[in-house]
Amino acid sequence: MDVGIEANRKVPTGAAVALSLIVLGCGGGPGPGEVDPAGPPPLFVRHWDQVCSVAREPVFLSTEELLDTIGLGEELKSAGILSAPGTTEPPELGIVLWYERSGLLEAAGRWETTMDPEPAARAEQVLASRARPLDRLLDRSSFYVVLKAGPEPQARIERSRTCMPHMRHPEQGRPYGLPDSVSTWYGRRSFRNDTTSATVRLQIDQLGQVFEVDSLGGPGWAVEAARQLVGELSFDPALLNGRAVLGVLEQSFRFRAR
Questions:
Q1: Residues 168 and 175 sit within 8 Å (Cβ to Cβ)
Q2: How many beta carbons lie within 10 A of that of residue 89, not counting itself?
Q3: 96: nearest Cα among 104, 106, 108
Q4: Per-residue b/e over 210-240, b at no fewer than 16 CB within 10 Å?
Q5: Cα 57 to Cα 53, 97, 119, distances in angstroms
Q6: By the 8 A CB rule, do 208 and 171 touch?
């Protein structure tokens, strides 16, 4: 399954890989170390083992309110997107539609798909072209849409996709910047009779930069060592429908005994 965001304009970021998106409107530039809230949403590719899940918040729109579904099946069929009759597992496409506060579509991006690249790109264009303007948004919003491209296609809105912040590392390798004398893992642990470990809560911004470190446990010297070490490490930001957002990561470190 392809995972990420496909589009047409590249946006440099601090994530694992930065791709681009179909942009329908642009704003001004961001300040140092910030993401411009008025500009098009910067999109990040999910790291190969970044933990993602389905958001708890329910969707407040119906599919028909978001998309013009009249004649959708015929258009998808004429574009050669639908699978043949009798296909047991039709391919799927998940895309995100980003809206400006005004209710106009701002951008569309592919998040994940089991389709081949060419039909996935065509399907994405079809769905984006059918996105309706919305008139009851309080802020910039995004919606996750899944297309099941069987002989009788189905398009539906699903709950948003969220991804936790993530310490960057190569596949089968140690995190970038982590000394050989230190081990690390996500989450808390018991510190009873453990004088070499510390757990910290990291506040991570949209560019993957740590701007606050809070102690969750461990001896003072280990907590201080963790604070200093965090500045040498690299992080992917939290994601909401492929857009970087503020996030929190609880990370534990074990240091070689002093």
A1: yes
A2: 9
A3: 108
A4: beebeebbbbeebbebbbebbeebbbbbbbb
A5: 12, 17, 31
A6: no
Per DSSP, the residues of 88-139 read SS--EEEEEEEE-TTS-EEEEEEEEESS-HHHHHHHHHHHHHTBPP-S--SS
E strand or H helix at 65:
helix 63-66
Q: How many CA atoms lie within 13 A of 228 on its CB side?
A: 8
Indicate yes or no: pTM above 0.85.
Answer: no
Q: How many Å apart are CA 227 and CA 221, to the nearest integer?
A: 10
Tens of pLDDT along the chain (258 residues) come to 444 443 332 222 333 323 334 444 433 334 334 455 555 555 666 777 888 999 998 888 999 999 999 999 999 999 999 988 888 899 999 999 999 999 999 999 888 899 999 999 999 999 999 999 998 788 889 999 999 999 999 999 999 999 999 999 988 889 999 999 999 998 877 666 678 999 999 999 999 999 999 999 999 999 999 999 999 999 999 999 988 999 999 999 999 865
Distance CA 209, CA 211 (A): 6
Amino acid at 68: D
| Sheet containing 247-255, strands listed edge to edge, beginning at the edge strand earlier in sequence | 182-186, 247-255, 197-204, 210-217
